[in-house]
Design brief:
By secondary structure, the chain is α/β, with parallel strands linked by helices. The protein has two domains: 2-96 and 186-198, Nucleotidyltransferase, domain 5, CATH 3.30.420; 98-183, Nucleotidyltransferase, domain 5. The chain has seven helices and ten strands. The protein has helices at residues 37-52, 71-88, 97-106, 145-150, 164-170, 189-198, 223-229, and strands at residues 2-7, 12-19, 24-32, 61-65, 92-95, 114-121, 124-130, 136-144, 158-160, 180-182. A hairpin with a 5-residue loop joins strand 7 and strand 8. Helix 1 packs parallel to helix 2 and helix 3 packs across helix 6. The longest helix is centred in the middle third of the chain and has 18 residues, at 71-88. It is globular. It starts with a strand and ends with a helix. The model is unreliable at 218-231 (pLDDT under 50).
Length: 231
């Protein structure tokens, strides 16, 4: 199976092509960035596909991270994945950033629970807790940092994600300490591809996975409109 994987959810723009029969990535590229995903993504996809020496019609499916993450970044990646999937008549698979973060640790075969954490700002994090075998212990949630730490009642955890250091710095001294802290700006694109290969297209659609509303919201009515309506 040939998988094109895309991630623009956080502070990187990443693309890879996975050949599951060969058990390896044929090509991959990543650029760390906080902005500019829209300009970087399509040229990166073109370069990766050229490096893999593949036409889009050779792909079996397209995998994309769907959140939590930057609202703008998510729209860029999901729109690209949907468009390419439609043109190639292939399924587009949506994967959460939290599961992609966790997969790299679960894949190491260790027993410690894994806490994936993403900075949600304002002293909050998006987080998920899975056991060492990948089974879910705490579903994806958004909570204050202290609430997220309090939810970890499963032994000394492995922290991963762009908020891993945030949790580690606030971790209480009187409870089992994290066995490892992997502060990564974005998930490993290779694991996004592998998760995309394993996922069921029927239950993993490529649509945004939001755990909270955007911080910036348009005004219900512009001030000048209210003034104009006043006699």
């Amino acid at each position: 199976m040939l998988i094109l994987a895309i991630d623009t959810a956080l502070d990187a723009c990443s693309v890879a092509v996975l050949d599951t029969d060969a058990g390896a990535l044929l090509a991959q590229e990543q650029l760390l960035m906080k902005r500019g995903h829209a300009e970087a993504l399509m040229p990166m996809i073109a370069r990766v596909m050229q490096s893999a020496n593949l036409a889009f019609t050779a792909l079996d499916r397209i995998a994309v991270t769907v959140g939590p993450g930057s609202f703008t970044g998510l729209r860029v990646g999901i729109s690209a994945a949907r468009g390419l999937a439609l043109a190639a008549e292939r399924p587009a698979i949506g994967l959460t950033t939290l599961s992609a973060y966790a997969a790299a640790i679960v894949g190491q075969g260790k027993s410690a629970p894994v806490i994936s954490a993403i900075d949600a700002r304002h002293d909050h994090v998006y987080f998920q807790i899975v056991a060492g075998d990948g089974s879910q212990l705490v579903r994806p949630s958004v909570a204050s940092i202290d609430e997220a730490i309090a939810a970890s009642q499963f032994g000394a955890p492995h922290l991963v994600g762009n908020a891993a250091n945030i949790l580690a710095e606030r971790w209480p001294k009187d409870v089992p300490q994290p066995v490892a802290v992997d502060a990564q700006p974005a998930p490993d694109i290779g694991w996004v591809a592998w998760l995309g290969a394993a996922a069921d297209p029927a239950t993993n659609p490529a649509r945004p996975f939001y755990l909270k509303a955007p911080d910036a919201k348009p005004a219900a009515q512009p001030p000048f409109a209210a003034q104009a309506a006043t006699p």
